[in-house]
Amino acid sequence: QVQLVESGGGLARSGGSLRLSCAASELFVDVYDMGWYRQTPGGEREPVAAISQDGLTSVAESLKGRFTIVRVSADNAIYLQMNDLKPEDSGDYYCAAGRDVDYRSSRLKLLVFWGRGTHVTVSS
User: What share of the chain has pLDDT > 70, as a percent?
Assistant: First the structure.
């Protein structure tokens, strides 16, 4: 059974950093396009960042310069490094596996698997 398990969420102060992890089982992260999404309170789920099988990355325009997506094949995991956090970054962060990265929107055009999410709270 395929599982994507996110971790690393928690409480951070404004200006701080968090590193989210997404560990995969029964799925190899280097044969899928992978992505991070988030859902802020009262908002819809939105793409944060994506990485293709070839290692090409895309980060949502509003998050560029602060967020970075990385894949570590040896870990069979992807990571989201979040720096200079802001209170508006608070929300639930989800890992996803799929196909075909849309580099303009940082989303996966075909979503196949989702994780259950990890919660991030950024205090002001």
Answer: 100
